[in-house]
């Protein structure tokens, strides 16, 4: 299912024009040694015969962090039907792959570039999608059992472009290393989702006064094959379920929802951890209390209420469920590792920013490690929960090596921090400023 690139920095084929195929580096924490010797392995778009990479090891992407269980050295490019090879495999069992920031340069993330996160095995693709069944039960007056065909004919579909982001996005920026897939910023994408507002289906089922929380179930078998276990079963307060943008989705970017993204039917619950956006959705049970399914307990999708000593043992009583995701911005062009011609004094940047349930109020960029900042221009979102595309123009004082930093600020005035904040064992909330390295000359 995957292909290992297995290239050392010096073995890159000269005809490889992929701008940022990472190779042969071990990914370290964001702030570990920053060195200019040939540690990274980017192929600069403007100079395919560049012999050394300009990407400091600390900024390289794609390999497991040091201290991770033994894996082949070097990143593994995804090899999956319909997916770009530039996606980076973070895990094979279950299959998890992230999208390097420079592949998030499209306004709407194409399916071919959209990240993949599974907790269990992939179910077989549905042979008759319209016959797929969804059950709504629990604290409702009328238990519903609807086929996808009935769902489509009984309710009015809505289409919104919305960010889907893994709860662990940015995890690799924590030190000491947090447990789980070592996402950089690529556990996110922004697609057009078509589906039926969950609220309308819940209204049709008739919520009882006791209805408090949802519980989501899907068709993906547990990794172990144990049929008594769910690979994942998360839920949310009824108020979030009733938001107009919480959708039961059957189309992605206008196409039938692909199997790898939960087709034929999934939830998309924007702003909150991606784990609520249940794939291969078969049942939503309404509960009279918080859900306790797979992924709801312990320190899963939870953050400390009071800051803990990084690396220390968690007291689970001190944790709360992670709800809205934190503000984040990424630079999508130029790619990390780009080499520009000598004399270049102006760089046009493109990027994206989003802020969970909130909106983005501004994006700023810096070329001097945050001593001075230049404000970017935000394009308006199409609808709530869409990302903001942004642009900025930077002046460079000279040739040489620069790191471009970006930070977004949310509508509550909170800004991305320079280092991952509020350490927790499973590494939620790592929304550090994004950095890319460029070399002029
Ligand atoms: N049934 C099911 N739904 C699931 C998951 C899963 O493992 N099983 N993973 C969740 C997580 S953790 C994320 S981040 C998103 C990822 O969606 P994607 O693979 O379409 O990008 O799906 C969510 N829905
Ligand atoms: Mo996730």
From TrEMBL:
Q: What is this protein called?
A: Mo-co oxidoreductase dimerisation domain-containing protein
Query: Which cofactor(s) does the record list?
Result: Mo-molybdopterin
Which example biological process does GO assign this protein?
Answer: sulfur compound metabolic process
- The biased composition feature labelled Basic and acidic residues covers 1-20
Q: Which GO terms describe its molecular function?
A: heme binding; molybdenum ion binding; molybdopterin cofactor binding; sulfite oxidase activity
Upper lineage is: Bacteria, Pseudomonadati, Pseudomonadota, Alphaproteobacteria, Hyphomicrobiales
SUPFAM superfamilies annotated for this entry? E set domains, Oxidoreductase molybdopterin-binding domain
The Moybdenum cofactor oxidoreductase dimerisation domain covers: 322-439
Keyword annotations for this protein, in alphabetical order, are: Metal-binding, Molybdenum, Oxidoreductase
Region Disordered: start-end pairs: 1-24, 291-313
